[in-house]
Design goal:
mainly alpha, two-stranded antiparallel sheet, 49% helix
Length: 324
Protein backbone atom coordinates (compact mmCIF):
# COMPACT_ATOMS: atom_id res chain seq x y z
CA UNK A 1 0.00 0.00 0.00
CA UNK A 2 2.84 2.38 0.84
CA UNK A 3 4.57 1.69 -2.44
CA UNK A 4 1.38 2.38 -4.39
CA UNK A 5 0.83 5.71 -2.53
CA UNK A 6 4.40 6.82 -3.20
CA UNK A 7 4.12 5.86 -6.84
CA UNK A 8 0.82 7.75 -7.14
CA UNK A 9 2.37 10.89 -5.64
CA UNK A 10 5.27 10.72 -8.04
CA UNK A 11 2.85 10.31 -10.93
CA UNK A 12 0.83 13.34 -9.86
CA UNK A 13 3.96 15.50 -9.53
CA UNK A 14 5.09 14.36 -12.89
CA UNK A 15 1.71 15.21 -14.38
CA UNK A 16 1.77 18.67 -12.76
CA UNK A 17 -0.78 17.93 -10.06
CA UNK A 18 1.26 19.18 -7.04
CA UNK A 19 -0.56 20.39 -3.91
CA UNK A 20 -1.79 23.97 -4.16
CA UNK A 21 -0.19 25.06 -0.87
CA UNK A 22 3.26 23.99 -1.97
CA UNK A 23 2.95 25.70 -5.33
CA UNK A 24 1.78 28.94 -3.65
CA UNK A 25 4.78 28.92 -1.32
CA UNK A 26 7.17 28.48 -4.22
CA UNK A 27 5.45 31.28 -6.12
CA UNK A 28 5.95 33.68 -3.16
CA UNK A 29 9.61 32.81 -2.88
CA UNK A 30 10.12 33.41 -6.59
CA UNK A 31 8.34 36.77 -6.37
CA UNK A 32 10.44 37.88 -3.42
CA UNK A 33 13.63 37.11 -5.29
CA UNK A 34 12.59 39.00 -8.38
CA UNK A 35 10.93 42.06 -6.72
CA UNK A 36 13.45 44.85 -5.96
CA UNK A 37 13.65 46.05 -2.30
CA UNK A 38 12.34 49.55 -1.57
CA UNK A 39 14.79 51.51 0.65
CA UNK A 40 13.41 52.66 4.02
CA UNK A 41 12.36 56.26 4.21
CA UNK A 42 14.92 58.47 5.98
CA UNK A 43 13.47 60.63 8.77
CA UNK A 44 13.74 64.33 8.08
CA UNK A 45 13.93 66.43 11.29
CA UNK A 46 11.80 69.53 11.64
CA UNK A 47 13.18 73.05 11.80
CA UNK A 48 12.86 73.10 15.58
CA UNK A 49 14.71 69.81 15.85
CA UNK A 50 17.44 71.09 13.56
CA UNK A 51 17.86 74.16 15.77
CA UNK A 52 18.20 71.95 18.84
CA UNK A 53 20.74 69.73 17.07
CA UNK A 54 22.83 72.71 16.04
CA UNK A 55 22.73 74.17 19.54
CA UNK A 56 23.77 70.83 21.01
CA UNK A 57 26.64 70.56 18.54
CA UNK A 58 27.83 74.06 19.42
CA UNK A 59 27.63 73.23 23.14
CA UNK A 60 29.74 70.11 22.67
CA UNK A 61 32.32 72.08 20.74
CA UNK A 62 32.71 74.51 23.66
CA UNK A 63 33.07 71.81 26.32
CA UNK A 64 36.46 70.40 27.19
CA UNK A 65 36.80 66.91 25.81
CA UNK A 66 37.74 64.28 28.40
CA UNK A 67 37.74 60.49 27.97
CA UNK A 68 35.52 58.04 29.83
CA UNK A 69 36.84 55.73 32.52
CA UNK A 70 37.07 51.94 32.21
CA UNK A 71 36.96 49.65 35.25
CA UNK A 72 38.49 46.18 35.33
CA UNK A 73 38.35 43.91 38.37
CA UNK A 74 41.64 42.08 38.88
CA UNK A 75 41.93 39.77 41.87
CA UNK A 76 39.20 41.57 43.83
CA UNK A 77 40.76 45.00 43.20
CA UNK A 78 39.52 47.58 40.72
CA UNK A 79 41.86 48.82 38.02
CA UNK A 80 40.99 52.19 36.43
CA UNK A 81 42.03 53.18 32.94
CA UNK A 82 40.91 55.57 30.22
CA UNK A 83 38.91 54.56 27.15
CA UNK A 84 41.61 55.99 24.93
CA UNK A 85 44.42 54.60 22.80
CA UNK A 86 47.02 56.79 24.55
CA UNK A 87 46.69 56.84 28.35
CA UNK A 88 49.05 59.82 28.70
CA UNK A 89 47.04 62.02 26.36
CA UNK A 90 43.83 60.90 28.05
CA UNK A 91 45.20 61.91 31.45
CA UNK A 92 46.22 65.31 30.08
CA UNK A 93 42.72 65.87 28.70
CA UNK A 94 41.18 65.03 32.07
CA UNK A 95 43.58 67.33 33.94
CA UNK A 96 42.67 70.15 31.61
CA UNK A 97 38.97 69.47 32.13
CA UNK A 98 39.15 69.69 35.94
CA UNK A 99 41.60 72.59 36.16
CA UNK A 100 44.85 71.04 37.40
CA UNK A 101 48.30 70.06 36.18
CA UNK A 102 49.11 67.55 38.94
CA UNK A 103 48.70 63.93 37.89
CA UNK A 104 48.88 62.72 41.52
CA UNK A 105 45.91 64.93 42.33
CA UNK A 106 43.93 63.43 39.44
CA UNK A 107 44.87 59.90 40.48
CA UNK A 108 43.69 60.47 44.04
CA UNK A 109 40.52 62.21 42.89
CA UNK A 110 39.60 59.31 40.60
CA UNK A 111 40.10 56.86 43.47
CA UNK A 112 37.79 58.89 45.70
CA UNK A 113 35.13 59.07 42.99
CA UNK A 114 35.42 55.31 42.45
CA UNK A 115 34.88 54.70 46.18
CA UNK A 116 31.92 57.08 46.20
CA UNK A 117 30.34 55.22 43.27
CA UNK A 118 30.83 51.73 44.70
CA UNK A 119 27.96 49.29 44.94
CA UNK A 120 29.11 47.05 47.73
CA UNK A 121 32.67 46.02 46.96
CA UNK A 122 32.39 46.42 43.18
CA UNK A 123 33.23 49.67 41.41
CA UNK A 124 30.52 50.52 38.90
CA UNK A 125 31.93 52.14 35.76
CA UNK A 126 28.59 53.76 34.93
CA UNK A 127 28.33 55.49 38.31
CA UNK A 128 31.99 56.50 38.20
CA UNK A 129 31.59 58.14 34.80
CA UNK A 130 28.44 59.92 35.98
CA UNK A 131 30.22 61.41 39.01
CA UNK A 132 33.14 62.39 36.82
CA UNK A 133 30.80 64.07 34.33
CA UNK A 134 29.30 66.11 37.20
CA UNK A 135 32.77 67.31 38.17
CA UNK A 136 33.63 68.18 34.57
CA UNK A 137 30.28 69.96 34.11
CA UNK A 138 31.06 72.36 36.97
CA UNK A 139 34.24 73.31 35.06
CA UNK A 140 36.61 73.79 38.01
CA UNK A 141 39.37 76.31 37.51
CA UNK A 142 41.79 75.03 40.16
CA UNK A 143 42.26 72.14 42.56
CA UNK A 144 40.14 73.79 45.27
CA UNK A 145 37.16 74.01 42.94
CA UNK A 146 37.81 70.46 41.74
CA UNK A 147 37.64 69.12 45.31
CA UNK A 148 34.48 71.08 45.99
CA UNK A 149 32.95 69.78 42.75
CA UNK A 150 33.85 66.22 43.78
CA UNK A 151 32.11 66.71 47.12
CA UNK A 152 29.06 68.11 45.35
CA UNK A 153 28.91 65.07 43.09
CA UNK A 154 29.18 62.69 46.07
CA UNK A 155 26.54 64.61 48.06
CA UNK A 156 24.17 64.57 45.08
CA UNK A 157 24.59 60.82 44.70
CA UNK A 158 23.91 60.27 48.42
CA UNK A 159 20.90 62.59 48.27
CA UNK A 160 19.29 60.58 45.49
CA UNK A 161 20.05 57.34 47.37
CA UNK A 162 18.13 58.54 50.41
CA UNK A 163 15.37 59.87 48.17
CA UNK A 164 14.94 56.33 46.84
CA UNK A 165 14.96 54.94 50.38
CA UNK A 166 12.38 57.49 51.46
CA UNK A 167 10.11 56.27 48.67
CA UNK A 168 10.39 52.64 49.81
CA UNK A 169 10.10 52.87 53.60
CA UNK A 170 8.09 50.27 55.49
CA UNK A 171 7.61 51.95 58.88
CA UNK A 172 7.74 55.34 60.60
CA UNK A 173 11.31 55.05 62.03
CA UNK A 174 12.68 54.30 58.57
CA UNK A 175 10.76 57.26 57.16
CA UNK A 176 12.07 59.64 59.83
CA UNK A 177 15.66 58.46 59.37
CA UNK A 178 15.58 58.73 55.57
CA UNK A 179 13.82 62.10 55.73
CA UNK A 180 16.39 63.61 58.11
CA UNK A 181 19.30 62.37 56.03
CA UNK A 182 17.68 63.59 52.81
CA UNK A 183 17.05 67.08 54.22
CA UNK A 184 20.59 67.40 55.59
CA UNK A 185 22.15 66.33 52.30
CA UNK A 186 19.92 68.67 50.28
CA UNK A 187 20.85 71.62 52.50
CA UNK A 188 24.52 70.65 52.27
CA UNK A 189 24.36 70.67 48.47
CA UNK A 190 22.78 74.15 48.48
CA UNK A 191 25.49 75.38 50.87
CA UNK A 192 28.17 73.95 48.58
CA UNK A 193 26.73 75.87 45.64
CA UNK A 194 26.87 79.09 47.66
CA UNK A 195 30.43 78.32 48.76
CA UNK A 196 31.52 77.76 45.15
CA UNK A 197 29.82 81.00 44.11
CA UNK A 198 31.57 82.97 46.87
CA UNK A 199 34.92 81.40 46.05
CA UNK A 200 34.64 82.25 42.39
CA UNK A 201 33.49 85.82 43.00
CA UNK A 202 36.13 86.64 45.66
CA UNK A 203 38.04 89.82 44.83
CA UNK A 204 35.85 90.82 41.93
CA UNK A 205 34.72 94.43 41.71
CA UNK A 206 31.56 95.73 40.13
CA UNK A 207 31.81 98.91 38.07
CA UNK A 208 28.57 100.72 37.34
CA UNK A 209 28.51 103.38 34.65
CA UNK A 210 25.62 105.85 34.67
CA UNK A 211 24.84 108.54 32.13
CA UNK A 212 23.87 111.95 33.46
CA UNK A 213 22.45 114.65 31.22
CA UNK A 214 22.97 118.25 32.34
CA UNK A 215 21.11 121.00 30.54
CA UNK A 216 22.44 124.51 29.96
CA UNK A 217 22.80 126.38 33.22
CA UNK A 218 22.42 123.25 35.34
CA UNK A 219 24.86 121.61 37.72
CA UNK A 220 25.62 118.00 38.43
CA UNK A 221 27.45 116.19 41.21
CA UNK A 222 29.49 113.13 40.30
CA UNK A 223 29.86 110.66 43.14
CA UNK A 224 27.85 109.34 46.06
CA UNK A 225 25.28 111.82 47.35
CA UNK A 226 23.95 111.51 50.92
CA UNK A 227 20.70 113.28 51.74
CA UNK A 228 19.95 114.88 55.11
CA UNK A 229 18.35 113.04 57.99
CA UNK A 230 19.38 110.14 60.13
CA UNK A 231 22.17 110.02 62.64
CA UNK A 232 25.05 112.34 61.64
CA UNK A 233 27.72 109.93 62.82
CA UNK A 234 26.19 106.99 60.94
CA UNK A 235 26.67 108.84 57.67
CA UNK A 236 30.41 108.45 58.02
CA UNK A 237 29.99 104.70 57.67
CA UNK A 238 32.16 103.71 60.67
CA UNK A 239 29.59 101.91 62.83
CA UNK A 240 32.20 100.60 65.25
CA UNK A 241 33.09 104.15 66.41
CA UNK A 242 29.54 105.51 66.49
CA UNK A 243 28.62 107.38 69.70
CA UNK A 244 24.99 107.10 70.74
CA UNK A 245 23.11 109.41 73.15
CA UNK A 246 22.85 106.83 75.93
CA UNK A 247 26.67 106.58 75.92
CA UNK A 248 26.89 110.26 76.86
CA UNK A 249 24.53 109.99 79.84
CA UNK A 250 25.85 110.20 83.44
CA UNK A 251 27.24 106.99 84.89
CA UNK A 252 26.04 105.18 88.00
CA UNK A 253 28.14 106.13 91.06
CA UNK A 254 27.41 102.95 93.06
CA UNK A 255 30.13 100.37 93.72
CA UNK A 256 29.75 96.88 92.41
CA UNK A 257 29.93 94.18 95.09
CA UNK A 258 31.53 91.74 92.71
CA UNK A 259 34.28 93.87 91.18
CA UNK A 260 34.57 96.57 93.87
CA UNK A 261 34.59 99.15 91.11
CA UNK A 262 32.15 101.78 89.91
CA UNK A 263 29.07 100.37 88.18
CA UNK A 264 29.38 102.67 85.12
CA UNK A 265 25.89 101.77 83.94
CA UNK A 266 23.73 104.66 82.62
CA UNK A 267 22.14 106.47 85.58
CA UNK A 268 18.41 107.07 85.67
CA UNK A 269 17.34 110.60 84.74
CA UNK A 270 17.35 112.67 87.95
CA UNK A 271 19.31 110.07 89.90
CA UNK A 272 22.99 109.35 90.41
CA UNK A 273 22.55 105.56 90.31
CA UNK A 274 21.03 103.04 87.90
CA UNK A 275 17.86 101.04 88.36
CA UNK A 276 19.85 98.08 89.63
CA UNK A 277 21.33 100.10 92.48
CA UNK A 278 18.08 101.66 93.71
CA UNK A 279 16.96 104.38 91.34
CA UNK A 280 13.19 104.79 91.45
CA UNK A 281 13.07 102.01 94.00
CA UNK A 282 10.92 101.59 97.11
CA UNK A 283 7.20 101.49 97.62
CA UNK A 284 5.01 104.18 96.10
CA UNK A 285 3.89 107.06 98.31
CA UNK A 286 0.35 108.03 99.25
CA UNK A 287 -2.64 105.78 98.93
CA UNK A 288 -0.85 103.66 96.37
CA UNK A 289 1.26 102.26 99.19
CA UNK A 290 -0.50 99.20 100.62
CA UNK A 291 1.22 99.54 104.01
CA UNK A 292 -0.14 103.04 104.54
CA UNK A 293 -3.63 102.06 105.74
CA UNK A 294 -2.79 100.50 109.10
CA UNK A 295 -0.30 103.27 109.97
CA UNK A 296 2.58 101.07 111.15
CA UNK A 297 5.15 102.70 108.94
CA UNK A 298 3.99 106.31 108.79
CA UNK A 299 6.22 109.15 110.02
CA UNK A 300 4.11 109.56 113.14
CA UNK A 301 4.32 105.83 113.93
CA UNK A 302 8.08 105.85 113.41
CA UNK A 303 8.47 108.85 115.79
CA UNK A 304 6.27 107.16 118.40
CA UNK A 305 8.26 103.93 118.18
CA UNK A 306 11.48 105.88 118.61
CA UNK A 307 10.09 107.68 121.68
CA UNK A 308 8.98 104.39 123.24
CA UNK A 309 12.45 102.91 122.68
CA UNK A 310 13.99 105.90 124.47
CA UNK A 311 11.59 105.52 127.41
CA UNK A 312 12.40 101.81 127.72
CA UNK A 313 16.09 102.56 127.71
CA UNK A 314 15.73 105.25 130.37
CA UNK A 315 13.59 102.91 132.52
CA UNK A 316 16.22 100.15 132.45
CA UNK A 317 18.91 102.67 133.38
CA UNK A 318 16.80 103.91 136.34
CA UNK A 319 16.23 100.37 137.60
CA UNK A 320 19.97 99.67 137.53
CA UNK A 321 20.63 102.75 139.67
CA UNK A 322 17.99 101.79 142.21
CA UNK A 323 19.26 98.24 142.53
CA UNK A 324 23.03 98.49 142.40
Amino acid sequence: MNQNSTAGARARRGAGHEPKRKRAREDRMTASRTTPKVPAKVYEPTSQEMTALEAQHARRQKEKNAPRMKVEMKGGAASLSFEHEDQGIAGTLLMEAIGTADFEFVDGLLGQLANAGKQGSVVNAKDLNFLLSVVKGIEPRDQMEAMLATQMAAVHSATMTFARRLNHVENIPQQDSAERAFNKLARTFAAQIEALKRYRSAGEQTVRVEHVTVNDGGQAIVGNVTHGGGHPEKARGNLMNTTYPFQKSPRCTATSKRTRKACQAPAVNGWTVCRFHGARGGAPTGKGNGMYRHGLYTQQAAALNSRLSDLQRESRALLRRLNP
